[in-house]
Design goal:
Length: 176
């Protein structure tokens, strides 16, 4: 359980969140960025998560109610994240989905079967900023246009690509 909490802290710190370990619960942290705040709770197994999450989240948000009230627009981006490293059964997974769909008070992310840093990062992905824009290879636009315009006659595409005047292009299209 502490390995999962440590991994979650590492992911959040890497994403520039500030972390507060003083939450009143041993297995929980508070986190905050410029636009998001929330609480992350870790459980031993899905059964424990399902039985304790409501009481724990009420306790942790109740103790921070003044912080939440003064958060302004950020309060609309308050999350409760519930994690455990033991996989859930099908019945437990359904119950966990129901928790996520309950938007009263806070948004919720609930995941079980978290094994390692990459799983932790994936569980928190919706909170994390984009890392980097994709690097795209240069594209030969005339070739790309020809490849994607297979429904048009080749002479029309050629006229378009040769930057012919608009009247000639319209005439060719009308002839088709």
């Amino acid at each position: 359980m502490t390995a999962l909490l440590d991994s979650a802290i590492e992911v959040l710190i890497d994403a520039q969140f500030s972390i507060d370990r003083e939450t009143g619960l041993e297995r929980a942290i508070a986190f905050e960025s410029q636009t998001v705040l929330g609480f992350l709770l870790v459980y031993d197994n899905p059964a424990q998560l399902l039985s304790l999450w409501h009481e724990d989240s009420s306790k942790i948000t109740g103790e921070r109610r003044f912080q939440l009230r003064s958060a302004g627009p950020k309060a609309w981006n308050t999350y409760i994240i519930l994690l455990c490293d033991v996989p859930a059964t099908d019945v437990q997974s359904v119950a966990m989905t129901e928790i996520e769909e309950d938007l009263s008070g806070t948004r919720k992310i609930v995941r079980a079967g978290i094994r390692g840093h990459e799983d932790t990062r994936n569980a928190l992905l919706s909170l994390l900023p984009l890392r980097a824009a994709p690097v795209l290879q240069p594209v030969a636009m005339p070739d790309e246009i020809r490849q994607r315009t297979t429904e048009l006659p080749a002479n029309v595409v050629d006229a378009f690509l040769s930057l012919s005047d608009e009247e000639q292009l319209v005439r060719l299209l009308e002839e088709q």
